[in-house]
Design goal:
Length: 387
């Protein structure tokens, strides 16, 4: 197996590094964190870099689906700000990836050029107050009345819902007992009459606020049913499609980016901080902690790279993506907390980025399918008997 990096991927790394250095200095990421808002205009800047084209078919102005480059871009942006990387996910994953794979031809023509240009953002509306991992049990109800779709319900953890153009929303559209055959996916503009959006304060990943979304007799056109009218009550097919494996890699890419940034800060701090007449990196305990952190980072990189490559090649990858989500998300938490301890009190105080990395990384084992769910997935995929 060739572990060398292609010229194209190396060029992408250089492009993003120069962009971050020029336009997103560390103090800007700190400002976004304190204000809990990344300017929406940043998605236009990412579009100018070509990053929004990585999941758009060539016939609609994109570069085709390049999973390896997409996941790499998310990882690199997250080193500076996971919220900035989240904007790319809202555009290229929640939007372009799903529309390209499951949208009708009319929807592809309507949405993909704007997504490619960075003009459109999608939020996810899957979870509900009583529905987390078991999204097949959603209670938000949709029905067709007089040629329109009418929605009533309550969505939770809808990150970016307040400023997105559309919410990619899973709803129950059929018989409550017809599990997995009673679901539909709707594209819901959040400014539609009958929608109330409120913010949910969170510990970390500030800059991309998450929201509650209440829907009361909300009407949208049938043309906003993902895939067209023939996909009514067939939403589970769309949720369980090939895009699911890409979705499982987004959070570990974010987690790895945050962990890499934490190691970089702790690595430099250990050289600059002096105690007992020498840098603390001379102390064996510090050296061992940082060596272990670098080793875990490398393991995470290889696992993410391998899983993304398999998805890109169209190979069976469900086990690989679940393992990557589990291992990288959990390892990132360990890495960041170890780096915080290297910095002592300074890793707990504002003024260094480390306290933000700690707040940001703690959600990674929860987002995108919790670690417990991934363990269940892995055991099931590998056919471990239950009895």
């Amino acid at each position: 197996m060739d572990f060398g990096e292609s010229e194209e991927l190396a060029a992408l790394r250089d492009l993003i590094a120069r962009f971050l250095e020029r336009e997103v200095p560390p103090e800007m990421a700190t400002k976004w964190d304190s204000e809990d808002l990344v300017p929406r205009t940043m998605i236009k800047r990412l579009a100018e870099l070509g990053l929004t084209m990585l999941t758009v078919p060539e016939e609609h102005g994109g570069m085709g689906r390049d999973v390896v480059s997409l996941i790499t871009a998310i990882q690199l942006l997250a080193q500076r700000s996971p919220a900035l990387a989240g904007l790319l996910i809202m555009n290229a994953c929640y939007g372009s990836l799903n529309i390209a794979e499951s949208g009708s031809e009319e929807q592809k023509e309507r949405f993909l050029p704007g997504l490619c240009a960075g003009d459109i953002l999608f939020a996810y509306g899957l979870s509900e107050p009583d529905v987390g991992a078991d999204i097949g049990s959603v209670q938000t109800r949709a029905e067709i009345r007089d040629g329109k779709v009418v929605i009533n319900g309550y969505k939770r953890w809808c990150s970016g819902g307040a400023f997105a153009d559309y919410i990619f929303m899973l709803v129950r559209s059929g018989d409550p007992d017809a599990r997995y055959k009673n679901l539909s996916v709707l594209l819901v503009p959040p400014n539609t009459p009958g929608i109330t959006i409120t913010a949910i304060p969170t510990l970390g990943v500030h800059g991309l606020p998450t929201n509650d979304v209440i829907l009361e007799d909300v009407e949208i056109p049938l043309t906003n049913l993902l895939g067209g009218e023939e996909m009514w009550n067939r939403g589970w097919e769309q949720m369980a499609g090939p895009g699911l494996e890409v979705e499982k890699l987004e959070t570990p890419a974010l987690a790895l980016g945050v962990a890499e940034a934490a190691v970089e800060e702790a690595w430099q701090y250990a050289q600059d901080r002096k105690q007992f007449g020498k840098p603390i990196c001379a102390q064996q305990s510090i050296r061992h902690t940082l060596a272990e952190a670098q080793t875990k980072l490398q393991a995470c990189r290889l696992m993410l790279q391998s899983a993304a490559w398999k998805v890109q090649q169209g190979l069976p990858s469900a086990v690989d993506t679940s393992m990557a989500k589990l291992f990288i998300s959990d390892s990132a938490v360990e890495i960041v907390l170890d780096c915080q301890r290297v910095m002592g009190a300074y890793g707990y105080a504002q003024g260094f980025a480390m306290e933000r990395y700690v707040r940001d990384v703690l959600v990674m084992p929860i987002w995108g399918g919790s670690s417990a769910i991934q363990k269940n997935n892995i055991a099931n995929f590998l056919k471990l008997p239950k009895a």
